[in-house]
Amino acid sequence: MKTAIIGTGNLGLSIAKGILNSNGATSMYLTKRDTTAIAEFEKYDKVTVTNDNRIAVENSDILIFAVQPIHFAAILESIKDLLTDKHVIISTITGFSIEKIEAVIGEDNFIIRSMPNTAISVGKSMTCICSNEKGKKRVELAKAIFNRMGHSMEIPEGQMQAATVICASGVAFWMRLIRATTQGAIQLGFDAKEAQELAMHTCNGAASLLIESGNHPEEEIDRVTTPMGCTITGLNEMEHQGLSSSLIRGIISSYDKITEFKNK
Fold it and tell me: Cα separation of 174 and 169, whole Å?
Protein backbone atom coordinates (compact mmCIF):
# COMPACT_ATOMS: atom_id res chain seq x y z
CA MET A 1 0.00 0.00 0.00
CA LYS A 2 1.10 3.55 -0.72
CA THR A 3 0.28 5.26 2.55
CA ALA A 4 0.44 8.85 3.74
CA ILE A 5 0.01 9.98 7.32
CA ILE A 6 -1.07 13.58 7.32
CA GLY A 7 -0.11 15.10 10.66
CA THR A 8 2.55 12.94 12.24
CA GLY A 9 2.18 13.81 15.92
CA ASN A 10 2.03 11.23 18.71
CA LEU A 11 -0.87 9.26 17.23
CA GLY A 12 0.43 9.57 13.67
CA LEU A 13 3.84 8.31 14.77
CA SER A 14 2.29 5.34 16.55
CA ILE A 15 0.35 4.43 13.40
CA ALA A 16 3.46 4.85 11.25
CA LYS A 17 5.49 2.57 13.54
CA GLY A 18 2.74 -0.04 13.55
CA ILE A 19 2.52 -0.11 9.78
CA LEU A 20 6.28 -0.10 9.24
CA ASN A 21 6.96 -2.76 11.87
CA SER A 22 4.47 -5.07 10.18
CA ASN A 23 5.69 -4.32 6.64
CA GLY A 24 2.27 -2.89 5.83
CA ALA A 25 3.32 -0.25 3.29
CA THR A 26 5.19 -0.27 -0.01
CA SER A 27 5.79 3.45 0.47
CA MET A 28 4.94 5.95 3.19
CA TYR A 29 4.80 9.72 3.33
CA LEU A 30 4.87 11.39 6.72
CA THR A 31 3.86 15.04 6.93
CA LYS A 32 4.34 17.62 9.65
CA ARG A 33 4.72 21.39 9.59
CA ASP A 34 8.05 21.08 11.41
CA THR A 35 9.66 17.88 10.18
CA THR A 36 12.55 17.99 12.66
CA ALA A 37 10.77 15.69 15.11
CA ILE A 38 10.19 13.00 12.48
CA ALA A 39 13.45 13.32 10.52
CA GLU A 40 14.67 10.02 11.97
CA PHE A 41 12.11 8.17 9.85
CA GLU A 42 14.07 9.07 6.73
CA LYS A 43 16.35 6.14 7.61
CA TYR A 44 13.63 3.87 6.20
CA ASP A 45 14.03 3.43 2.45
CA LYS A 46 10.28 3.44 1.91
CA VAL A 47 9.58 6.59 3.96
CA THR A 48 9.53 10.20 2.74
CA VAL A 49 9.29 12.99 5.29
CA THR A 50 7.79 16.28 4.09
CA ASN A 51 5.85 19.34 5.21
CA ASP A 52 3.93 19.37 1.91
CA ASN A 53 0.59 17.57 2.25
CA ARG A 54 -0.09 17.84 -1.49
CA ILE A 55 3.04 15.89 -2.40
CA ALA A 56 2.04 13.19 0.07
CA VAL A 57 -1.48 12.94 -1.37
CA GLU A 58 -0.27 12.82 -4.97
CA ASN A 59 2.03 9.89 -4.21
CA SER A 60 -0.24 7.84 -1.95
CA ASP A 61 -3.46 5.82 -2.05
CA ILE A 62 -4.26 5.50 1.67
CA LEU A 63 -4.52 8.88 3.41
CA ILE A 64 -4.56 8.67 7.20
CA PHE A 65 -5.34 12.01 8.85
CA ALA A 66 -4.12 12.53 12.42
CA VAL A 67 -4.23 16.32 12.67
CA GLN A 68 -5.87 18.54 15.28
CA PRO A 69 -9.62 18.97 14.70
CA ILE A 70 -9.33 22.73 14.23
CA HIS A 71 -6.99 22.24 11.25
CA PHE A 72 -8.74 19.32 9.56
CA ALA A 73 -11.25 21.17 7.37
CA ALA A 74 -8.61 23.55 6.01
CA ILE A 75 -6.25 20.68 5.21
CA LEU A 76 -9.01 18.80 3.40
CA GLU A 77 -9.83 21.96 1.46
CA SER A 78 -6.19 22.32 0.43
CA ILE A 79 -5.89 18.81 -1.06
CA LYS A 80 -9.41 18.02 -2.29
CA ASP A 81 -8.58 18.85 -5.94
CA LEU A 82 -6.00 16.03 -5.87
CA LEU A 83 -8.39 13.33 -4.71
CA THR A 84 -9.19 10.55 -7.16
CA ASP A 85 -11.00 7.23 -7.00
CA LYS A 86 -7.75 5.56 -5.87
CA HIS A 87 -7.73 7.46 -2.57
CA VAL A 88 -9.09 6.13 0.71
CA ILE A 89 -9.53 8.83 3.35
CA ILE A 90 -9.13 7.56 6.92
CA SER A 91 -9.74 10.09 9.69
CA THR A 92 -8.58 9.44 13.25
CA ILE A 93 -9.97 12.78 14.43
CA THR A 94 -12.40 12.64 17.34
CA GLY A 95 -15.67 14.50 16.91
CA PHE A 96 -15.26 15.28 13.20
CA SER A 97 -18.19 13.52 11.56
CA ILE A 98 -18.37 11.92 8.15
CA GLU A 99 -20.97 14.53 7.25
CA LYS A 100 -18.44 17.31 7.95
CA ILE A 101 -15.80 15.55 5.84
CA GLU A 102 -18.25 15.11 2.97
CA ALA A 103 -19.19 18.79 3.21
CA VAL A 104 -15.59 19.65 2.27
CA ILE A 105 -14.58 16.95 -0.23
CA GLY A 106 -17.94 15.55 -1.37
CA GLU A 107 -19.78 12.27 -0.89
CA ASP A 108 -18.13 10.53 -3.84
CA ASN A 109 -15.04 9.54 -1.89
CA PHE A 110 -14.05 6.50 0.19
CA ILE A 111 -14.36 8.04 3.66
CA ILE A 112 -13.65 6.13 6.86
CA ARG A 113 -13.53 7.27 10.47
CA SER A 114 -11.39 5.35 12.93
CA MET A 115 -11.07 5.67 16.69
CA PRO A 116 -7.88 4.01 17.97
CA ASN A 117 -6.69 4.30 21.57
CA THR A 118 -3.28 5.00 23.05
CA ALA A 119 -2.38 1.29 23.18
CA ILE A 120 -1.78 1.58 19.44
CA SER A 121 1.78 2.56 20.36
CA VAL A 122 2.39 -1.01 21.61
CA GLY A 123 0.31 -2.76 18.95
CA LYS A 124 -2.67 -3.37 21.25
CA SER A 125 -5.24 -0.77 20.21
CA MET A 126 -8.95 -1.45 20.16
CA THR A 127 -9.92 0.58 17.08
CA CYS A 128 -13.52 1.27 16.08
CA ILE A 129 -14.29 2.02 12.42
CA CYS A 130 -17.24 3.45 10.51
CA SER A 131 -17.66 4.77 6.98
CA ASN A 132 -19.82 6.64 4.51
CA GLU A 133 -21.78 4.67 1.91
CA LYS A 134 -18.97 4.54 -0.63
CA GLY A 135 -16.41 3.85 2.07
CA LYS A 136 -18.10 0.56 2.94
CA LYS A 137 -16.18 -0.91 0.00
CA ARG A 138 -12.89 -0.11 1.79
CA VAL A 139 -13.77 -0.97 5.39
CA GLU A 140 -11.99 -4.32 5.22
CA LEU A 141 -8.88 -2.53 4.01
CA ALA A 142 -9.04 -0.13 6.96
CA LYS A 143 -9.56 -3.02 9.36
CA ALA A 144 -6.55 -4.79 7.90
CA ILE A 145 -4.43 -1.69 8.56
CA PHE A 146 -5.53 -1.29 12.18
CA ASN A 147 -5.47 -5.03 12.90
CA ARG A 148 -1.70 -4.74 12.44
CA MET A 149 -1.77 -2.55 15.55
CA GLY A 150 -4.28 -4.45 17.67
CA HIS A 151 -7.91 -5.28 16.98
CA SER A 152 -10.60 -3.43 15.03
CA MET A 153 -14.39 -3.46 14.90
CA GLU A 154 -16.83 -1.87 12.46
CA ILE A 155 -19.65 0.01 14.18
CA PRO A 156 -22.32 2.56 13.12
CA GLU A 157 -21.13 6.16 13.30
CA GLY A 158 -23.81 6.87 15.90
CA GLN A 159 -21.90 4.64 18.33
CA MET A 160 -18.52 6.36 17.89
CA GLN A 161 -19.01 8.54 20.97
CA ALA A 162 -19.86 5.51 23.10
CA ALA A 163 -16.85 3.69 21.66
CA THR A 164 -14.65 6.63 22.62
CA VAL A 165 -15.74 6.17 26.25
CA ILE A 166 -15.32 2.38 26.28
CA CYS A 167 -12.08 2.17 24.29
CA ALA A 168 -10.24 5.50 24.63
CA SER A 169 -11.36 6.60 28.09
CA GLY A 170 -11.47 2.91 28.94
CA VAL A 171 -7.67 2.73 28.93
CA ALA A 172 -7.68 5.19 31.84
CA PHE A 173 -10.40 3.22 33.64
CA TRP A 174 -8.35 0.03 33.42
CA MET A 175 -5.22 1.88 34.51
CA ARG A 176 -7.04 2.99 37.64
CA LEU A 177 -8.10 -0.60 38.38
CA ILE A 178 -4.51 -1.77 37.93
CA ARG A 179 -3.34 1.01 40.23
CA ALA A 180 -5.86 -0.03 42.88
CA THR A 181 -4.73 -3.65 42.64
CA THR A 182 -1.14 -2.47 42.96
CA GLN A 183 -1.99 -0.55 46.12
CA GLY A 184 -3.68 -3.61 47.55
CA ALA A 185 -0.62 -5.72 46.81
CA ILE A 186 1.61 -3.19 48.56
CA GLN A 187 -0.61 -3.39 51.62
CA LEU A 188 -0.17 -7.17 51.57
CA GLY A 189 3.60 -6.82 51.70
CA PHE A 190 4.97 -6.50 48.17
CA ASP A 191 7.16 -3.55 47.25
CA ALA A 192 5.78 -1.06 44.72
CA LYS A 193 7.63 -2.44 41.68
CA GLU A 194 6.67 -6.03 42.46
CA ALA A 195 3.08 -5.01 43.16
CA GLN A 196 2.65 -3.28 39.80
CA GLU A 197 4.27 -6.18 37.96
CA LEU A 198 1.86 -8.61 39.62
CA ALA A 199 -1.16 -6.40 38.89
CA MET A 200 -0.48 -5.57 35.24
CA HIS A 201 0.49 -9.09 34.18
CA THR A 202 -2.54 -10.56 35.95
CA CYS A 203 -4.74 -8.03 34.13
CA ASN A 204 -3.09 -8.93 30.83
CA GLY A 205 -3.63 -12.63 31.52
CA ALA A 206 -7.30 -12.14 32.39
CA ALA A 207 -7.97 -10.27 29.14
CA SER A 208 -6.01 -12.85 27.14
CA LEU A 209 -8.08 -15.67 28.64
CA LEU A 210 -11.28 -14.05 27.37
CA ILE A 211 -9.80 -13.22 23.96
CA GLU A 212 -8.47 -16.73 23.40
CA SER A 213 -11.42 -18.67 24.84
CA GLY A 214 -14.32 -16.44 23.80
CA ASN A 215 -15.85 -17.17 27.20
CA HIS A 216 -18.04 -14.84 29.24
CA PRO A 217 -16.14 -13.32 32.20
CA GLU A 218 -18.34 -15.19 34.66
CA GLU A 219 -17.24 -18.52 33.18
CA GLU A 220 -13.62 -17.68 33.97
CA ILE A 221 -14.61 -16.36 37.41
CA ASP A 222 -16.28 -19.70 38.16
CA ARG A 223 -12.96 -21.44 37.45
CA VAL A 224 -11.22 -19.63 40.30
CA THR A 225 -13.97 -19.45 42.91
CA THR A 226 -14.59 -22.23 45.42
CA PRO A 227 -17.33 -22.48 48.07
CA MET A 228 -16.48 -20.32 51.09
CA GLY A 229 -13.12 -19.51 49.47
CA CYS A 230 -11.04 -16.33 49.48
CA THR A 231 -11.88 -15.36 45.87
CA ILE A 232 -15.67 -15.32 46.28
CA THR A 233 -15.27 -13.57 49.63
CA GLY A 234 -13.23 -10.82 48.00
CA LEU A 235 -15.57 -10.51 45.01
CA ASN A 236 -18.65 -10.24 47.21
CA GLU A 237 -17.06 -7.56 49.38
CA MET A 238 -16.14 -5.58 46.24
CA GLU A 239 -19.75 -5.81 45.04
CA HIS A 240 -21.04 -4.75 48.46
CA GLN A 241 -18.83 -1.67 48.14
CA GLY A 242 -20.21 -0.91 44.67
CA LEU A 243 -17.47 -2.08 42.29
CA SER A 244 -19.66 -2.89 39.27
CA SER A 245 -22.09 -0.07 40.00
CA SER A 246 -19.34 2.57 40.24
CA LEU A 247 -17.74 1.39 37.00
CA ILE A 248 -21.04 1.53 35.13
CA ARG A 249 -21.88 4.94 36.60
CA GLY A 250 -18.45 6.22 35.62
CA ILE A 251 -18.90 5.02 32.04
CA ILE A 252 -22.32 6.66 31.78
CA SER A 253 -20.97 9.91 33.26
CA SER A 254 -18.18 9.98 30.69
CA TYR A 255 -20.69 9.41 27.92
CA ASP A 256 -22.92 12.20 29.22
CA LYS A 257 -19.93 14.56 29.19
CA ILE A 258 -18.87 13.69 25.63
CA THR A 259 -22.48 14.14 24.50
CA GLU A 260 -22.55 17.52 26.20
CA PHE A 261 -19.46 18.58 24.22
CA LYS A 262 -21.06 17.46 20.95
CA ASN A 263 -24.26 19.40 21.61
CA LYS A 264 -22.49 22.69 22.35
Answer: 9
The torsion defined by the Cα of 50, 33, 14 and 135, in degrees rounded to 10, comes to -80
User: Beta strand 125-131 with 150-154: parallel, antiparallel or unpaired?
Assistant: parallel
Closest by alpha carbon to 13, among 25, 36, 33, 30? 30
pTM over 0.85: yes
d(CA 150, CA 124): 4
Sign of the torsion formed by the C-alpha atoms of 58, 61, 67 and 73:
positive
Encode the chain (264 residues) as per-residue pLDDT tens digits. Answer: 899 999 999 899 989 988 888 888 899 999 999 999 999 999 988 999 999 999 999 999 999 999 999 999 999 999 999 999 999 999 999 889 999 999 999 999 999 999 999 898 888 999 999 999 999 999 999 999 999 999 999 999 999 999 999 999 999 999 999 999 999 999 999 999 999 999 999 999 999 999 999 999 999 999 999 999 999 999 999 999 999 999 999 999 999 998 886 766
User: At CA 86, angle to CA 85 and CA 92, rounded to 5?
Assistant: 100
The amino acid that residue 213 corresponds to is S
Residue 57 burial (10 A CB sphere; 0-12, 13-18, 19+): buried
Exposed/middle/buried for 12, CB within 10 Å: 0-12, 13-18, 19+? buried
Strand, coil or helix: what is 93?
coil
Sequence letter at residue 199? A
